[in-house]
Amino acid sequence: MSFFDEERPVKKTTHEIGADLSLLSVGELKERIELLKSEIARLEAESVRKASGRAAAEGLFRS
Questions:
Q1: Full-model pTM
Q2: Helix H segments across 1-63?
Q3: I need a surface site. Which of 30, 58, 59, 63 has the fewest CB within 10 A?
Q4: Would the pLDDT of 25 be above 60?
């Protein structure tokens, strides 16, 4: 590990799947729920984008 690696700030994990939730407040739990909902929406949008790209590519090869 170099000297510069030690100076780099460590990114705080906002949520880890399977993490212990018992020490979190209701507010913190709600924040994590909103974070995960936005991540689900992002994943769904990417899935739709990729599926439409694949359908377009398949259409080209069928012609």
A1: 0.62
A2: 3-7, 26-62
A3: 63
A4: yes
